[in-house]
């Protein structure tokens, strides 16, 4: 009877940790309709082609698409950036993972103490 709560906590925390570490990491990309223009992405990414910043090349009209029905010079508005936000999602969930780890440790201690007989059993009240 003493093992119900600690084992329940242990299983819940273990399942949550398992789910976190086996989650797909490729689902955290910015959706295409919300892709960021090159000019607005400078705080997270810089793209260089042959040592020159892509924004500079686009502004100068030096980037060209060929072999396509819409071939021609690319403008800055033609290029969009999508980000993989998996690193940020994992960082936001770090405190919860620490809590799960603490819960697993505490539950293992309680289960161990109960199984080794170190948790005193209640005596029936004589009232």
Give a concise summary.
It is built from 4 helices and 6 strands, in the order αβββαβββαα. It has 127 residues and is mostly helical.
Low-pLDDT residue spans: none
Largest sheet: 2 strands, antiparallel
Give the overall silhouette: rod-shaped
Kindly report the spatial arrangement of strands forming the biggest sheet.
1-6
What count of domains describes the coordinates?
2
The fraction of residues in strands falls at 5-15%
Number of strands: 6
How big is the Rg?
28 Å
Helix content: 40-55%
Q: Classify the secondary structure makeup into a structural class.
A: mainly alpha
Total helical segments? 4
Distance between the termini: 23 Å
What is the averaged pLDDT score? Answer: 85
Q: Output the helix-strand order.
A: HEEEHEEEHH
Q: Can you describe what's shown?
A:
The protein has four helices and six strands; from the N terminus they run αβββαβββαα. It is mainly α and 127 residues long. It has two domains: 66 residues; 54 residues, no CATH class. The strands form three sheets. Strands 1-6 form a two-stranded antiparallel ribbon. Strands 2-3 form a two-stranded antiparallel ribbon. A hairpin with a 2-residue loop joins strand 2 and strand 3. Helix 1 packs antiparallel against helix 4. The longest helix is centred in the C-terminal third of the chain and has 22 residues. It is rod-shaped. The mean pLDDT is 85.
């Amino acid at each position: 009877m003493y093992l119900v709560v600690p084992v329940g906590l242990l299983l819940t925390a273990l399942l949550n940790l398992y789910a976190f570490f086996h989650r797909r990491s490729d689902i955290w990309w910015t959706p295409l309709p919300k892709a960021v223009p090159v000019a607005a992405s400078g705080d997270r990414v810089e793209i260089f082609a042959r040592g020159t910043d892509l924004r500079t090349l686009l502004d100068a009209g030096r980037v060209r698409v060929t072999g396509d029905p819409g071939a021609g010079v690319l403008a800055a508005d033609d290029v969009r950036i999508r980000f993989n936000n998996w690193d940020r999602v994992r960082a936001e969930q770090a405190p919860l993972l620490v809590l799960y780890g603490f819960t697993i440790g505490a539950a293992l201690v309680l289960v161990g103490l109960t199984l080794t007989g170190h948790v005193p059993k209640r005596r029936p009240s004589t009232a």
